[in-house]
Specification:
By secondary structure, this protein is mainly α. About 80% of the residues lie in helices and about 0% in strands.
């Protein structure tokens, strides 16, 4: 088998880790009411329970980058995968919210290694010019995991219970874990001639070089914005919103919500391919931001027919497909920087954005509801949900303004 074919096979198998973590991450969105009943919590606490996943990712992202630069990559992501499985197990066996939160934290720990770890592994197999396609492929695998969670699992929430669904996700993870142990390995390309030092001065120097680069920060912020429709809406509030505001049934709302993930799967590799052919990144990033804002405004504030609603949800996902391009842009900004550190900082900002906005939606929901009760005004749930979710389009407007500060890399690095 040629090295090129072997590289892409390893990429696909390792990406099962990210697919599993994504399915685990979005699972609360398809079981809102059962989780509220099981753990006896309100919407604010539900938002926080989901956000623990991203808080843990946020805390572990930089340590994960340091580890991935200095130890065997396969061993690192294998241990992380195992930690994710333990988190999944704790979440499914408990009726106590504290243990469920610990399970989400462990899953978030694994998430810190998933995307960045797989990309780091692929950097030992593929030349730099292929990493844009690799990041899009890894992202697509992750979103494919979310699609399966939205299309296949909701019927089991109805016919069985939410614990049965979490056991199915656990089984998928065990299979992926076995395949990764058996069939993945590091490639022949070595980015560093020697293993970087564990001295804190070296680690701090790598971190400072990337965190003080405004273009890397901008790329990370854009990655966060592109992921907000996935991480805040599709992964958490989407099905519930589509039921209560758009009047869809539970089963149909999860299928409609899956269109967002499906759009991202289609668009991610396509955007990366077109960008590389055109030799530019910035126009694709800006164009997807503008279309993403318009499509979200249509979903949240315009009464659409079912057909138009489904089309716009697909468009939301298509625009989110540019997230992978943001990571590639961050890598190209400073080719001499630590690859794991660059990806980690971009992913850190992405996780921070999702964690903050998941909690913010819950806070706005609780605050507005309390305010209406104090004013003795009847609560209209669709209006309350629209108000709470309005922070996402506002963030996109800010992102569009920031994107004008990007410096084009022309797909070659070193802006």
């Amino acid at each position: 088998m040629s090295t090129s074919k072997r590289a892409w096979i390893v990429c696909c198998i390792a990406s099962l880790f990210y697919a599993y973590i994504m399915a685990l991450g979005v699972s609360p969105s398809i079981m809102v009411k059962p989780l509220l009943a099981t753990f006896h919590i309100d919407m604010l606490h539900f938002s926080n329970l989901s956000a623990f996943f991203f808080y843990a990712t946020l805390i572990m992202q930089i340590p994960a980058a340091v580890i991935l630069e200095r130890v065997d990559i396969k061993k690192a992501i294998t241990v992380a995968f195992l930690v994710g499985l333990v988190g999944n197990f704790l979440f499914v066996i408990t009726h106590y919210v504290l243990l469920a939160e610990i399970g989400r934290v462990l899953a978030g720990f694994a998430n810190a290694f998933a995307f960045v770890g797989v990309l780091r592994l692929m950097s030992t197999w593929l030349p730099e010019e292929k990493m844009g396609a690799a990041s899009a492929l890894v992202m697509s695998f992750g979103v494919f995991g979310a699609i399966l969670a939205n299309l296949v699992l909701p019927q089991f929430v109805i016919s069985k219970n939410w614990q049965f669904v979490m056991w199915l996700i656990f089984a998928f993870g065990v299979v992926g874990f076995g395949l990764m142990l058996w069939l993945t390995e590091e490639g022949p390309i070595h980015i560093n001639a020697s293993t970087p030092s564990w001295r804190w001065q070296v680690i701090w120097g790598q971190f400072k070089r990337s965190i003080l680069n405004p273009q890397i920060l901008l790329a990370g912020m854009l990655a966060a914005l592109f992921y907000l429709p996935i991480g805040v809406f599709a992964s958490l509030w989407g099905p519930y919103y589509l039921q209560k505001v758009c009047g869809l049934s539970y089963d149909f709302s999860t299928k409609a919500n899956a269109l967002i993930f499906f759009g991202m799967v289609i668009a991610g590799p396509a955007i990366a391919f077109l960008s590389e052919k055109a030799g530019v990144r910035k126009p694709f990033l800006l164009g997807c931001l503008l279309l993403g804002l318009i499509s979200m405004l249509l979903v949240f504030y315009v009464s659409l027919s079912i057909v138009l609603l489904l089309a716009v949800l697909l468009l939301v996902g298509v625009c989110s497909g540019a997230e992978g391009l943001s990571y590639t842009f961050a890598e190209e900004v400073d080719p001499g920087a630590s690859l794991s550190m660059v990806f980690a900082i971009a992913n850190l900002l992405c996780s921070l954005g999702v964690a903050v906005f998941q909690s913010l939606v819950g806070v706005l929901f609780a605050w507005r509801k309390t305010h209406l009760l104090e004013m003795h005004i009847a609560i209209h749930l669709p209006s309350l949900l629209k108000f709470s979710i309005s922070c996402v389009p506002v963030a996109f407007i800010i992102g569009i303004l920031l994107s004008f500060k990007l410096k084009e890399t022309h797909v070659q690095g070193g802006s």
